[in-house]
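This part of the workshop introduces the protein records we will be handling. To make this concrete, we reproduce a full record directly below.
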Amino acid sequence: MKKETIIILLLILTTLLSCKNEKKFSEIKKLSEYENTLFIPTLEHEISNDKNFVYCATLLLAWDEVRKEINSPLTISEQFLDLKLLNESTSFVDVLKSNEYKIDGTVEGGKITVKAEFNKSLPIERNLKSFNNKLTFNGQKVASFGINGDDSDDKLKIVKIVYYKNDNNYILKLTPKDVEHEIILFKTEQNFNSIAEMNSEIEKLTEIGKTERKNEKTKWKYNYYSEDEVIIPKFNFNIETNYSSIEKAVFSTEKQNFYIENAWQRTAFILDENGAEIESEVMFAVELGLEEDEEKYKKPKKMIFDKPFLILLKRTDARNPYFGLWVTNSELMIKE
């Protein structure tokens, strides 16, 4: 039998968004403690309307580094669909600039160790309002924040209306001090198969919004008036999981077979009136050498996130986000 080599990938990806006040993540919990939340490895993975789905580019960045260390084309059986989708996805490319994260790889005695770090702070210019007893999401009272239409201009500028059709179909963008990044909130009644599909729809609707903003008959949608309001749930979670559908998977190059021993991820996220904060880390352990086995003006806009919606964190010059959260229930929200 060929000499066995263990390839260990340790990726620590830390994103700090909105550090006006030091935030504290909740204690780490296992994903199995949440009945209605799942982690997905890529933007292209299938989602549904009965679960929350959490995505972070961490896993894709880690897997890409594994491929670079192996440095040979990979063959993955259809039997290991999640790994195949992970290997085929390119949605992580250019989601961050090269100077916004660091990846180091070393090879010692048949062991490849890869470490990556990402740390970014994005405070918003001014804190938004924190509301009490203001929001119910699917029957559950949850903590919330946002703005009223008669707030000061500097607060209203932080929450930009990107697209508005009606109170159940709109896109908002929260703008931090670092204008190269943005927080996107998308509420929709349309059904989508993946966050990637929703991201493409956001691109399309954003262009419609730009056109409507210039039209005298529709530009009212993109301005705030005294009775308008935005109410957003607050989030604070810190979850770890092992990807059971990726662990134990086998793949090969022309000369060697590989076996994934461990695929673990932790993602923590906070969203509130100060902004957002995310922290994520991943560990891959891959063993080498095993055998293969149109509405009218004057109607107030009530942009209240009380039904399923999407949260994206992304660079403004990138097509894809580095974090996505499809929210269909209150499991990850702060309760009142």
Notes: The first helix runs from residue 58 to 70. Helices lie at 58-70, 81-88, 153-158, 195-213. The two ends are 60 Å apart (CA to CA). Confidence is low (pLDDT under 50) at residues 1-21, 292-297.
